[in-house]
Write a structure and sequence with these properties.
The structure holds 2 protein chains of 2 kinds. Chain A is globular, with a radius of gyration of 18 Å. Chain A has helices at residues 2-9, 25-38, 55-58, 69-73, 79-82, 108-119, 135-141, 155-170, 185-189, 196-203, 215-223, 234-246, 262-270, and strands at 12-17, 43-47, 84-85, 92-95, 124-128, 146-151, 177-183, 207-212. Chain A has an 8-stranded mixed β-sheet with strand order 3-4-2-5-1-6-7-8, sandwiched between helices. By secondary structure, chain A is an alpha/beta fold. Chain B has a domain at 34-85. Chain B is built from 4 helices and 4 strands. The longest helix of chain B is centred in the N-terminal third of the chain and has 18 residues, at 15-32. Chain B is elongated, with a radius of gyration of 22 Å. Classes of the chains: A alpha/beta, B alpha+beta.
Chain lengths: 273, 106
Amino acid sequence: MESEEKSRTDARVITVSSGKGGVGKTTATANLGISLASLGKRVVVIDADIGLRNLDIIMGLENRIVYDLVDVVEGRSKLRQAMIKHKKFDDLFLIPAAQTRDKMAISPEDMVQMTDELREDFDYILIDSPAGIERGFRNALEPADEVLIVTNPEVSAVRDADRIVGLIEAAEKGPGKLIINRLKTDLVRKGEMLSSDDVYDILGLTIIGIIPEDEMVLSASNSGIPVTLNLNSQAGMAFGNIARRITGEDVPFMNLDGNPGILRRFLRLFDGR
Amino acid sequence: MGIIKTLFGRRKQGSGATAKNRLRFVLQHDRIHLPPERMEEMKREILAVIVKYLVVDQDRVEIDLEQRDRRQSKLVAEIPFSGQQPAHSAPDARLPALSSDSADNS
């Protein structure tokens, strides 16, 4: 109750979940954190995937870790000591997951306590949820004011997203908003991939963003510089748009069919379009 | 052949549409926690009751699960029949409430 009242004035806690692994939760969390920070917001990103730490390496902060989430919960470190400041943004911090422990090392209540301690001083707290529907997910869900669900336009990811939505609603945190990641527009055009409309029809969730497949995401992960900092990247731009929508701005969806390039336009002639 | 088909023929249904149909089906059952086989069993039982009373056109029976959203589902049944079953095949067991009613009336 108390935290619900707080959330209106202080930070919003946004949990990024998916059910299925490998759909781009961590990439989304990193990019949204960076995008929100570049909009001048004060942001903390928390890696709740204990045992499978990854948000640090995606954000290029893996060399700066001294303390982690479990150190804070078990009292070996103050919260502030475990917060790693981003190289580019003074108001963006990472709390890394522990690498040598498991999900049972912390409880949902620990997460609520930690986020409550951060709420006053920040605008957004993003939590990168682990895959699955067990304790790790519960830990990430408990403190959430709202939930973003990342999915791919692919049968197993959509099915798992639906399962997660059911759990989010049961926990009265729902319904959550959807990020459709890795949409391959050329395949959708050929009818060989679920479109964003298809996913919407099936899940019935508000779509907060559609991220087109983009090779630059991989290069960005490779170099530890999230893709949203790359102004030439469509995916980066799409993540930036989601961040602006989170802040309440009304941002039109990108035309993902636009500017297909001369070769693809030529090929499309043969595709019957 | 494939190219010619794509160029001149109708666009065939891609695997995207198949994915959508398969997902719709599996999620309907995931959401109500009733696997397809149990659902079929239930349909057979429902039908078995109706057949005791009515001559049902079994080939045209449709009992479908419809979902408006995650929380609201309904069964929609279309069960065509051509009349009542002859009296001799009527069920022996009558509902207790009905039999006591008729006992009072007589």
